[in-house]
Amino acid sequence: MKTFAFAYTPYYWLTVTSLASLLFLGGLLCSSFWFSDRWEDLFKENIEFLVECEPGVSAEKLNALESALSQMEEVRRLRFVSPEDALELMKKELGSLALPNDMKNPFQASFRFTLDPLKVDTAHVHALHDTLMDMDGVSAFYYPEDLYSTIRSRLRSFSMITGAVAGVLVLLILIMIHHQIRMYIMQHRYHIRTMTLVGATRSYIRKPFIAEVLKMSTFSILVASIAYLLTLLWIGNLLGQSLFASNLDMAILGMIFIAALGLLLSFSAAWAAIQRYLESTDARDFI
Fold first, then answer.
1. d(CA 10, CA 61)
2. How far is 188 from 206, CA to CA, in rounded Å?
3. Is the pLDDT of residue 278 over 80?
4. What is the mean pLDDT of the segment spanning 121-145?
């Protein structure tokens, strides 16, 4: 029996693009909720703290201070920054006009480090501040006191906004796929009636439409998966680490969620549209 020949209209590609956007947002939403603690840890690992040394501190005191800091269990990625290095870094950020070469170097020797993510909280940082200020050769301890709360609020806002957008897109995608199938059915309604008259079963009539929608969703899943992986790579590049090396399960779960959501939405929308037509007594009831 002759198979259906489906026309790929601009509306079809709009549906594919919209479905891919929904699946991409769905993958990010799944990751942000399921791995919310890990996302926080990824950002907390990159919060940098600075211990400023006293002016003219001796090399012996610097070595002793570095040794004391390195022995702290919560300290990570400890590095020494000389006054000259600090000045060069600031020139790169502000430009030579703000810090001319003939200006006296205002910076002191310092140590910069990050903390164990489990220790990045206000109470522990305040206790660390008291400990460091009691060390010989330390003049100041700088840290972004409100950065941790800012990160948490931004992650929470991102999850809420993404969830709201994804919820709206779910409804829009279901409607668009439903209407796409309606267009296909109306294009082939006489063919469907002919198959019904010769005894074709509902499953046989339904099969080409379901197959076409699954093909459409497969393409959307592929596009969304690529965008999702590229986003993880981009975030990993910003944080200076490979998400695939330490968070492969995050990438796998997001991909599984994208595939499952795409197939479920496409199949359910197509099934509902076809069933509505097949259960109607007259093709005009479907219009």
1. 71
2. 12
3. no
4. 82
Q: Are 49 and 148 in contact (CB under 8 A)?
A: no
Bridge partners (DSSP) listed for residue 142: 50
Nearest to 109, CA basis, from 139, 149, 135:
139
β pairing state of 49-53 and 75-81: unpaired
Question: In the predicted model, is pLDDT for residue 257 greater than 80?
Answer: yes
Q: Tell me how far apart the alpha carbons of residues 141 and 159 are, in angstroms, rounded to a whole number.
A: 33
As a whole number of angstroms, the distance between CA 223 and CA 219 comes to 6
CA angle 40, 41, 43 (to 5 degrees): 70
**Quick one: DSSP state of residue 91?**
H
The sign of the dihedral angle between the CA atoms of 153, 156, 157, 158 is positive
Look at the domain 48-143 and name its fold.
Alpha-Beta Plaits (3.30.70)
Residues 31 and 236: their CA atoms lie apart, in Å, by: 14
Three-class secondary structure of residue 5 per DSSP: coil
At residue 100, the 3 state secondary structure works out as coil
Looking at the chain, the domain(s) classified CATH 3.30.70.3040 span 48-143
Give CA separation, 90 vs 78, 83, 106, 230, in Å: 20, 11, 11, 32
Give the span between the Cα atoms of 9 and 183, in whole angstroms: 10
